[in-house]
């Protein structure tokens, strides 16, 4: 009797599960799902091209620009931890980032995944913890002294380091990995601006920097935590294997470096961001603890290093393959420099552009914005759903689930940007007479710098740094791709090029 009863129980449970799975799967609008494992197999297969895969899924929805999928098809978990709503609909993005801002925090899963790397820093916190850091940072980013400090760091790294390396490569007719050079440049700049410590990674011999290498490894390992169910990375962490072992080793190096930087600032405070936060108070009126200060600084390094360098890499890649755009950029820069430095072309390249000159470069800013439309430095972002909600397009999102808004996909939707959405077209950012930079009337079509209360505080400084670097390179050199070099995306928090950007440099005659 026991065996037939057991078989009946198993058959009944299986039938009940399959009925439940059928009812669940018919409501999902994303990639195919399987019992138990949901869409995890397809996610794993497409892990090397995750952003394009998500964009293809969104395009397949037609004009909806929203789909829902499940990575853990197990009752209860399926409607919470395993349930994902993926969207690139501008109205939905506005709803998430502004209208119902409090209902869509980073959330426990995101914070748990990033806690080891970013702690309670501004990019991994919510509520009062986030607000006090935001207010403090906002005060600092509106000061002219920070702009002047950034200008000093940018001009120094261009003139004393970047130009020397590029000149040597051009003279010897050897190629350079432009992405690597830009990462080193922005890393030196943001470290100097954040905690006054110059790691000098952009030295002529291109030294390996343990902190920079460990930081890269840590961000890659952390991203993997977001893509798979939490119990998988927690098991790896418990066993100290795989990506979690790499993360642990990398974080030890990062922690030691940040401790040294903090101790140096305590002995000799300066005008860097870390010194400024050391003078501020938390929500209880106390000074920030050392552990929090280190994570605050690390958050700014993450924001200031990777995003600008990655954007510049895709900018040079795009311009290098569009001579018309390149000519218009050079024409604009030389027009400005004629007014500020005179008619002698030698005076144009003696020193990098100062920020006041860079401010006047409207077409160049349009080209950078167009780059970020197609290749946003942060291609996806994740939000936790606090309470049941309905998005403006009618999509129901259950409490405890995750909403992903795909910034990468927004720029690739014809329903949002038109039939020419895949074209690199800076003109779409200009006024009719071409003399003013204009953001889209629907501001949530472009959220490369985030939007709503979490809008990037360093947006203007980022544009100025990118303009200065872009001008410094293009005024002196024409770039040519190395034959056979493949430019493809890397799986990371930011949209790195997997194999770098290898180019030859040819002196430009002005």
Automatic annotation (TrEMBL):
Bilayer topology term: Single-pass membrane protein
Pfam families reported in the protein's UniProt record: p450
UniProt keyword list: Heme, Iron, Membrane, Metal-binding, Monooxygenase, Oxidoreductase, Transmembrane, Transmembrane helix
Positions of transmembrane segments: 6-24
Positions contributing to heme binding: 456
GO MF annotation list: heme binding; iron ion binding; monooxygenase activity; oxidoreductase activity, acting on paired donors, with incorporation or reduction of molecular oxygen
Cofactor(s) demanded: heme
Matching PROSITE patterns: CYTOCHROME_P450
Localization per record: Membrane
A single BP term in Gene Ontology: lipid metabolic process
Record GO cellular component, one term: membrane
InterPro entries hit by this protein: Cyt_P450, Cyt_P450_CS, Cyt_P450_E_grp-I, Cyt_P450_sf
Classification via PANTHER family: CYTOCHROME P450
Protein family: Belongs to the cytochrome P450 family.
Name of the protein described by the UniProt record: Cytochrome P450
Organism field: Rhododendron simsii
Source organism phylogeny: Eukaryota, Viridiplantae, Streptophyta, Embryophyta, Tracheophyta
